Amino acid sequence: MVSTKTPEDAYTAEPFVPERRGLPALRKAAAECRGCPLHRDATQTVFGNGDTDARVLIVGEQPGDQEDRQGKPFVGPAGRLLDRALAEAGIDPGQTYVTNAVKHFKFTSSGPGKRRIHKAPSLREMTACGPWLAAELAVVDPELIVILGATAGKALLGSSFRVTQQRGTLLEEEIHGRQTRVVATIHPSAALRADDREAVYQGLVSDLKVAARALD
Asked: What is the pTM of this model?
C-alpha cells in the first residue's frame, strides 16, 4: 500500500534544515519548508533578519499580515514600536537579530474584504518550527535572548512559562541545548491593543532596560 503521508504530517522542520548553517543558506532552505501545514495558506516563509554578530536575539510569536506580505519580520506597527522601545531602553535596533518562533503566518479570514486575523499557533506548530530557531541561535550565538510574549516564551521555555510572572527578570536558561541569558517581556502588539497604551509601552521599555543592563 502506497503511503499518502506528506512531510508536513510529521510536524518537524528538521528534514529541511541544511547541513551548511550560514544564515543565507538557512534562509534559502526555509523558503521551501513544508514541515507543518501552515505553509499552505501563508504567502511565504518569514525568516529572521538582522545582524549576524548581534549580541541580542529577539524572538516573537509569528509573522503578522504585513510580515507575511513583505517576507521580513517586525516590519508592521508592532515592529516599529519595538524599534522605538529598544532605542529608548538603550539597545540599538540595528545591532539585533529579530525572528519568530513560528515562520509562517497563521490566520483566519473574516469580514467582507476577507481581512486576515492573526490566530495563535499551536504548541505542535511551534515545536515543528523549533529546528529553524535552533539553527539561528547556533549561527548568531547571542549573549542574550529577548522573548516577546507568552507564545514565544512557551516555545522556548516550555508550556509552564507565564509572561506575567517572568517578565523583566534576567534568567539563565537552556534553550535548544545552549545555556543563555534570557529576558522576557510582552509582545509590542499588546501595547498597541491596550487601553492605556503609554503605561503598557513604558512597561515594555522597563523590561528592555533589564536586557540593556545585562549587556553592560
From this structure: 0.93
